[in-house]
Amino acid sequence: MATDADADDETGEEVRVWLVERTYSDDEQNLVILVYATPDGKRYFRKERALTSFTDERDTTAALDVSADNLGTVDDPEECEQYAAEASRVAAERDPDDPI
């Protein structure tokens, strides 16, 4: 079961992260970069998805449960604050499996 673990939890336990950013790569054509963050904004998970066609219908969900070992640390305080605000907003408005 996923928890909103704190930034120091490196046990390999699963942590719930919420979608905070979706961008299209400038370097690679047809690459979408999804960033999910913990509710406190201190940790993030980056997922890159290649779009294979215009009919590619894989849902992007509001949240993911990922291993704490796969989370990076947000070093910029402003970015941390933005991620926390967006993760909290998405968590309040959506269920984890909701397509977004």
Structure, described:
This protein is of the alpha+beta class and 100 residues long. The protein contains 1 helix and 5 strands; from the N terminus they run E-E-E-E-E-H. Strands 4-1-2-3-5 form a 5-stranded antiparallel β-sheet. Strand 1 and strand 2 form a beta hairpin.
Brief characterization of the structure:
The protein has one helix at residues 77-93, and strands at residues 14-24, 31-37, 43-50, 63-67, 72-73. By secondary structure, the chain is of the alpha+beta class.
Question: What's the arrangement of secondary structure elements?
Answer:
Layout (H helix, E strand, L loop, with lengths): L13 E11 L6 E7 L5 E8 L12 E5 L4 E2 L3 H17 L7
Antiparallel strand pairs: 1-2, 1-4, 2-3, 3-5
Number of extended strands: 5
Instruction: Give unreliable regions as ranges.
Output: 1-9
> Main beta sheet: strand number and arrangement?
5 strands, antiparallel
Give the N-to-C terminal Cα separation. 22 Å
Mean pLDDT: 86
Q: Tally the helices: what do you get?
A: 1
Strand order of the largest sheet: 4-1-2-3-5
As a whole number of angstroms, the C-alpha radius of gyration is: 14 Å
Structural class: alpha+beta
- Indicate the overall shape: globular
Q: Tell me what portion of residues adopts beta-strand conformation.
A: 25-35%
Question: What is the ordering of alpha helices and beta strands?
Answer: EEEEEH
| Helix residue percentage | 10-25%
